[in-house]
Amino acid sequence: MITLALSKGRIFDETLPLLKAAGIEVLDDPDQTRKLILATNQPEVRVVLVRATDVPTYVQYGGADLGITGLDTLIEHGSDGLYQPLDLQIAKCRVSVAVREGYDYAAAVRQGARLRVATKYVAIAREFFAAKGVHVDLIKLYGSMELAPLTGLADAIVDLVSTGNTLKANHLVEVERIMDISSRLVVNQAALKLKREPIRKIIDAFGKALGQP
Ligand code: PRP
User: Fold this and answer.
1) Fewer Cβ neighbours under 10 Å: the N or C end of the chain?
2) Cα(66)–Cα(164) distance, rounded to whole angstroms?
3) What is the position in ligand 1's atom list of the atom closest to the CA of 159?
């Protein structure tokens, strides 16, 4: 049995065409079922639905053989024990620094004062500001980061930006782009050895669908 870990939403939806290219069709719609293990048209392949931040954990410890996860999640989790053969070029967005409209970010950074930064992406934020030589106090949040500068919890946030609509709706502006994000295929290294042939077949089919040799 080959187990693929996916999260519901954009990653799941954008993975379906790649699975199709590998001859795999998921038999249930995750929005219509409460099931967490989804069968496919291939009896030897199943999909498990997990929280996006749990995908690397499932694959690292062998709860799934393969998984698809954003680069943001992968950096925060660390990539120990994970083989990363492909950038799938799906679920693209960016990680950026944003502040309240009218907040003088350039001055705050220049003055060498400590900046209070709220984020779910603590590792990415820590490394980015350390490389700039800016002192930051990081405040870990699990969602609704946009609220932090509006309530005085933080001066800035580090968050995912896609269309920019969420920032705009909350009167925030993007002041620095930290990195571009896309989803990656991750594979459990032991599974790659033990189930080499079926896993290789999937990796190769995904690669071919992406136009890679
Ligand atoms: C992300 C991010 C922003 C939003 C940005 O949240 O945290 O809130 O998307 O998208 P936009 O630029 O197109 O408006 P997501 O919906 O992934 O959920 P999350 O808050 O659980 O991370």
Assistant:
1) C
2) 31
3) 7
